[in-house]
């Protein structure tokens, strides 16, 4: 099966980046979001990202135009019927994702592969709500999608070798390096990364050091490109909290308990860059 048309669902920071790299690799992209404003913001974000590449001389203006021409904003989910592959990038909630996958299973043609960009949720459980569990797979891009080379590919219990092969080849076509991992909470990336971020939040919560000092230690001492609190704001504090809750619930070990300060910020609507405020304050959410 040749994958020609991809629907990306959720036009947030991940979905807009996935739409951009998919269109840049020559695929036709249908971009859908539940909210029209989020869809417009997603298109604005990826247009800005492509514009930056043009300014830096890394992309010709005509290429930018043709990439944008391959991305069709879709107000209706029904257009998933045109897709060979759906990549879901909505909020990190099992309830929202399973509701969506049930609908997609009804709407999509029999050959269509359903992939999820989930950061931590079990692929097997998402697949189980569909009648096509052999065609459901995790395709976990990293943020910012146009820059980061990794795609974690996660097989559910029933994912077929054929579907795995298609997704691995597609990740390579998008210029990414696929790495296969098994279906456990947080996979590899967030099993390792998120407890580090959570522990950094605890050091602020317990008064070990100020947020700037924590970030400086990790940047200058460990050569991390961003400090853990800066990175948490970049990922989104709501997403970080969801991931910690999934690690805590799924692995049942108290070492994964989310820091109360993280919960407090999320409850206050301080979600990081996307809302203009998290551990730090930002001018623009784009
Ligand atoms: C939560 C999960 O489930 C999994 C995850 O994704 S965890 C998060 C993983 N990501 C990280 O850890 C990111 C860590 N941070 C970094 O690597 C870097 O800080 C960064 C790449 C984001 C920015 O790098 P920088 O050197 O500070 O900035 P800058 O020089 O402006 O940008 C470097 C390149 O990235 C691009 N870039 C930066 N931010 C971007 C964005 N949001 N979207 C698209 N491109 C972006 C720039 O255009 C630039 O591209 P070129 O090299 O082609 O010119
Ligand atoms: N942030 C990160 O660094 C990474 C995140 N991920 C994963 O990617 C997914 C998306 O994360 P991210 O892009 O950061 O989140 P965002 O909050 O930036 O974007 C999510 C988007 O999905 C929309 N949405 C919510 N529910 C639905 C629905 N039922 N149908 C269609 N659209 C919907 C939201 O609309 P609205 O805002 O209007 O509610 C929003 O525009 C999550 O599963 C996350 O765990 C994976 C790798 C890295």
TrEMBL record:
Residues annotated for NAD(+) binding in this entry: 10-15, 33, 92, 97, 119, 143, 274
Keywords attached to this entry: NAD, Oxidoreductase
Residues the UniProt record annotates as site (Important for catalytic activity): 140
Entry keyword annotation includes Chaperone: no
All residue ranges annotated as the 3-hydroxyacyl-CoA dehydrogenase C-terminal domain in the record: 186-282
Pfam families: 3HCDH, 3HCDH_N
Swiss-Prot/TrEMBL GO biological process terms: butyrate metabolic process
Pathway: Lipid metabolism; butanoate metabolism
Molecular function GO terms recorded: NAD+ binding; oxidoreductase activity, acting on the CH-OH group of donors, NAD or NADP as acceptor
Keyword Membrane: no
Matches recorded under InterPro entries: 3-OHacyl-CoA_DH, 3-OHacyl-CoA_DH_CS, 3-OHacyl-CoA_DH_NAD-bd, 3HC_DH_C, 6-PGluconate_DH-like_C_sf, 6PGD_dom2, NAD(P)-bd_dom_sf
Entry-linked SUPFAM superfamilies: 6-phosphogluconate dehydrogenase C-terminal domain-like, NAD(P)-binding Rossmann-fold domains
3-hydroxyacyl-CoA dehydrogenase NAD binding domain mapped to chain residues: 5-183
Binding site for CoA: 49, 56, 119
Membership in a protein family: Belongs to the 3-hydroxyacyl-CoA dehydrogenase family.
Protein name: 3-hydroxybutyryl-CoA dehydrogenase
Organism: Paenibacillus elgii
Top-level taxonomy: Bacteria, Bacillati, Bacillota, Bacilli, Bacillales
């Amino acid at each position: 099966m040749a994958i020609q048309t991809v629907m990306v669902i959720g036009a947030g920071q991940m979905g807009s980046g996935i739409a951009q790299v998919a269109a840049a690799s020559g695929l036709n992209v249908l971009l859908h979001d539940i909210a029209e404003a989020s869809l417009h913001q997603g298109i604005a974000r990826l247009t800005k990202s492509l514009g930056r590449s043009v300014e830096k001389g890394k992309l010709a203006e005509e290429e930018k135009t043709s990439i944008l021409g391959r991305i069709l904003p879709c107000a209706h989910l029904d257009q998933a019927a045109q897709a060979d592959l759906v990549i879901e990038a909505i909020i990190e909630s099992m309830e929202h994702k399973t509701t969506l996958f049930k609908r997609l299973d009804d709407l999509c043609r029999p050959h269509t592969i359903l992939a999820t960009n989930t950061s931590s949720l079990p692929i097997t459980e998402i697949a189980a709500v569909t009648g096509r569990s052999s065609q459901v797979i995790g395709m976990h891009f990293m943020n910012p999608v146009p820059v980061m080379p990794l795609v974690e590919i996660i097989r559910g219990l029933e994912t077929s070798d054929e579907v795995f092969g298609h997704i691995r080849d597609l990740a390579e076509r998008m210029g990414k390096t696929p790495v296969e991992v098994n279906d456990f909470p947080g996979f590899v990336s967030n099993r390792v990364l998120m407890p580090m971020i959570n522990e950094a939040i605890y050091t602020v919560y317990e008064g070990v050091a100020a947020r700037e000092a924590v970030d400086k230690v990790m940047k200058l001492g460990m050569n991390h490109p961003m400090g853990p609190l800066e990175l948490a704001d970049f990922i989104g504090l709501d997403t970080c909290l969801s991931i910690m809750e999934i690690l805590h619930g799924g692995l049942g070990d108290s070492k994964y308990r989310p820091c109360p300060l993280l919960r407090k910020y999320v409850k206050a609507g301080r979600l990081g860059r996307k809302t203009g405020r998290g551990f730090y304050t930002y001018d623009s959410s784009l």
